[in-house]
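Data deposition worksheet. Section B asks for the primary sequence of the deposited chain exactly as it was used as input, without tags or linkers unless they were present during the calculation. Section C holds the resulting structure in token form. Section D is free text for depositor observations; keep each observation to a single sentence. Incomplete worksheets are returned to the depositor.
Section A, Depositor: J.P.
Section B:
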Amino acid sequence: MKKSFKTVLVTLFVAISSWVSAQYNIVGEWIEVEGKDTSTFTFHKNGFVSINAPVDDLHIIGEGFDLEGFNACAKYTAQTNGKICKANIYVILVDMDSAIAMVAPALIEFIDANTIKMALNMEHEEMGDLSAEMLEKLRPKDFTDPEETVILKRYIKK
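Section C:
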């Protein structure tokens, strides 16, 4: 009896964890919904990220783009804990032994499965591969700064 109860508990925990993971998954294309901006963020399954922000003249194509004459790529890491996700976006210079040119720490909150609020810090002076402590120091703590925060909706093809 005890063994079957443990099995049921483990199965239930795995099922709930899988449901929460599927519910709050950052992978996909996200479109800014406020203002007149048409910015998009695409978090690819393979760890690359693409950002298109026409207003800021920012066009980052995850797997390869030109950054001031250098071949570059953009990758991300994400740690999700329920509705909160801590992500880091890395711009990597492929021509320079994959040196990290920039890291943008982000705080993401899932409003629902298809809407996120994201605060992104791209305005710091730190360069290169940053320690976990430095990333946490630079990561936005909340969503109060309108210059750093955007609301994005998941693009769902019809």
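Section D:
Residues 8-22 have pLDDT under 50 and may be disordered.
The longest strand covers residues 99-112.
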